[in-house]
């Protein structure tokens, strides 16, 4: 069921997002992903649809075209400027930000409207790992953290599920987790892989206050004064990887994206 028509408009872009600066991109932002144009097309495509499956399909159709257009623009620009590798990888992340953010807002407005959320019904969509660094190859994983303040609610679970269906239908390879801040701290203490991913977190959309609280607590309760232990653990992890590859430092895994 959709909300009243006046509630369907997309909100203005959140200024608190950790946006990728324009000077890090291979083309002007709107040449890669024009959020206003995409959202206008989504509103037109959704129209008076009330069936969630049809709404998801409308979103996928619009976003598939926008994603393909942006990626084609990067490929063309990179062919003309083959030394602009840093700008290219940042541009792929920029397009992914646009897609993920639009999917979040579309699902929030059309699929699972919640005009009076409780304090526990808040979500921050975070990029982690290489995506969090804003460094992506054409077929990189889209690693997402859905951050909630407390135990996940039925509304949040439905919203996240709908987001994932749309992203999967766009043929994006999504790695995802849903955690509270306490979960992030607890798991990060015990698992260096998770800690590494959290070290490179970036806010994409949703509740900015929740994202900022995660950042503060990670640095104060997890990262502060643990640098030497973390480096030692990562060096041991690298040494073990080399041992598995036959003991040769320069024999890398065949995982070319």
Provide a descriptive summary of the structure in words:
- The protein has 257 residues and is an alpha+beta fold.
- 56% of the residues lie in helices and 9% in strands.
- The chain contains 10 helices and 4 strands, in the order ααααβαβαβααβαα.
- It has helices spanning 29-32, 35-46, 52-80, 85-111, 129-132, 154-169, 181-190, 192-199, 208-223, 227-244, and strands spanning 124-127, 142-148, 174-180, 202-206.
- It has a 4-stranded mixed sheet with strand order 3-2-1-4, with helices on both faces.
- Strand 2 (142-148), helix 6 and strand 3 (174-180) form a beta-alpha-beta unit.
- Helix 4 (85-111) packs across helix 6 and helix 7 packs parallel to helix 9.
- The longest helix is centred in the N-terminal third of the chain and has 29 residues, at 52-80.
- The radius of gyration is 20 Å and the shape is globular.
- The model is unreliable at 1-13 (pLDDT under 50).
How many extended strands? 4
Task: Please state the oligomeric state of the protein chains shown.
Answer: single chain
Strand order of the largest sheet: 3-2-1-4
Structural class: alpha+beta
Q: Number of DSSP helices?
A: 10
Query: What coarse outline follows from CA principal-axis ratios?
Result: globular
Radius of gyration from the alpha-carbon trace, in angstroms? 20 Å
Q: Determine the strand fraction and express it as a percent band.
A: 5-15%
Helix proportion range:
55-70%
Distance between the termini: 41 Å
The overall pLDDT, averaged over residues, is 86
Point out poorly predicted stretches: 1-13
Note the main sheet.
4 strands, mixed
Q: List the helices and strands in order.
A: HHHHEHEHEHHEHH
């Amino acid at each position: 069921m959709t909300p009243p028509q006046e509630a369907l408009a997309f909100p203005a872009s959140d200024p608190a997002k950790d946006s990728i600066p324009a000077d890090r991109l291979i083309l002007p932002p709107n040449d890669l992903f024009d959020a206003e144009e995409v959202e206008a097309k989504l509103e037109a495509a959704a129209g008076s649809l009330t069936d969630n499956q049809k709404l998801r399909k409308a979103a996928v159709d619009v976003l598939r075209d926008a994603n393909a257009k942006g990626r084609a623009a990067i490929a063309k620009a990179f062919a003309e400027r083959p030394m602009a590798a840093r700008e290219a990888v940042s541009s792929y992340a920029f397009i992914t930000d646009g897609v993920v953010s639009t999917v979040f807002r579309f699902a929030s407005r059309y699929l699972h409207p919640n005009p009076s959320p409780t304090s526990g019904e808040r979500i921050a969509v975070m990029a982690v790992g290489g995506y969090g660094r804003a460094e992506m190859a054409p077929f990189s994983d889209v690693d997402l953290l859905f951050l909630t303040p407390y135990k996940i609610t039925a509304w949040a679970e439905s919203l996240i599920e709908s987001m994932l269906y749309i992203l999967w239908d766009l043929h994006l390879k999504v790695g995802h987790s849903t955690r509270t801040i306490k979960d992030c701290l607890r798991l990060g203490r015990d698992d260096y892989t998770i800690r590494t991913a959290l070290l490179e977190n970036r806010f994409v959309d949703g509740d900015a206050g929740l994202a900022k609280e995660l950042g503060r607590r990670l640095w104060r309760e997890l990262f502060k004064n643990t640098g030497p232990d973390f480096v030692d653990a990562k060096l041991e992890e690298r040494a073990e990887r080399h041992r598995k590859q036959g003991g040769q430092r320069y024999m890398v895994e065949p995982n070319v994206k």
